[in-house]
Design a protein that fits this description.
2 copies of one chain form a homodimer. By secondary structure, chain A is mainly alpha-helical. Helices cover 48% and strands 4% of the residues of chain A. Chain A contains 6 helices and 3 strands. Chain A has a 3-stranded antiparallel beta sheet with strand order 1-3-2. In chain A, 29% of the residues are buried. Chains A and B meet through strand 1, helix 1, helix 3, helix 5 and helix 6 of A and strand 1, helix 1, helix 3, helix 5 and helix 6 of B. The first copy, chain A, binds a DNA duplex through helix 2.
DNA sequence: GCTTTACCTCAAGTTGAGTTGAGGTTTTAT
DNA sequence: ATAAAACCTCAACTCAACTTGAGGTAAAGC
């Protein structure tokens, strides 16, 4: 219940990040602060939660832009409620399920693939990552990599 | 068995990447080529395997530098054998297991954590990512993020 | 009271992973 | 034989995510 107010330095230390990173996140609209009389930043404890989420998400490869979009489901005007965070959490979990599924698929394919010695261009999932792996079961809630544009199929001409 | 020789354009098209990316990877020492009489790049089919591995690895957040190091276990002078690739594959799988474990832990913690409404700084794994999540079961073979340096523990002073 | 520490802004620099463009050569296709 | 497509080099640009530095103000400790 400690209705604590935080300074940049405290937040930075507590979260293990630089003060400059907090400036940066604020500038990017990921976190918010108000100022005291001396123009110094002050934070609600909520900010720690946000930063924790940012760090956790980054670790799994989510960009700041995507995180920001996820945060936009949180209210700007009032402090997010438990329900607000739960909604975000739900989306997050779908994404994580997708990522996990992808990694598992990749791992399992590696076993039979990377070391198999085959040079079968048409069969090997490693040589054909788009079909077999990239598009595999991820419910892209936050991630939406929108990759693979070039997908021409054309074998070279020479052969022995 | 097709002992095919590849040009940049063919490789690029086949792999769905730009020619400039191949130049770049070569410059970074990730792939190799020789030149024909007209100074144009020529590739062994092996390069497709390398690029596939690069792409797969990048997708799970491995940096080019780490990939390069992994490739250094491959022979420079001769074409990698099945065994060479198998060794690399083994390391890769350990890393993937680590990443999967991390993601699962994160997902499971999210359920009880991000939306729980607790503000318990001392208990919540989200607020204390270093201990609970970051260091959790990953045998860092390729990843070795070497993060968390700043880990001071200091609560702010004010309270209500 | 004064010194040290923390904070402020704003501009510029850094790193990773490429991309773009200019200016020129080779290959391929007709 | 000639035009189009593919290739070459090298330098510069881009973008994300920060970090560093200069020059100055505010707050804390003794």
């Amino acid at each position: 219940m400690a209705e604590t107010i935080w300074s940049v330095g405290k937040v930075a230390k507590r979260c293990g990040i630089n003060v400059s990173t907090l400036h940066f996140y604020e500038q990017q609209g990921l976190i918010h602060s108000w100022r005291n009389e001396g123009n110094q930043r002050r934070y609600k404890p909520e900010v720690l939660r946000r930063i924790s989420v940012i760090k956790a998400a980054q670790r799994v490869g989510v960009s700041l832009e995507e995180i920001k979009q996820a945060f936009e489901s949180l209210p700007n005007n009032r402090t997010p409620t438990v329900e607000d965070w739960q909604q975000l959490s739900k989306n997050w979990q779908q994404m994580l399920d997708g990522r996990i599924a992808y990694l598992q698929k990749l791992r399992d394919n590696l076993a039979g693939c990377i070391g198999c010695g085959c040079l079968s261009m048409t069969n090997c999932p490693l040589y054909n990552p788009d079909d077999k792996l990239a598009k595999s079961g991820s419910g892209p809630v936050l991630l939406d990599q929108a990759e693979q544009k070039a997908r021409a199929q054309q074998e070279p001409s020479a052969s022995s």
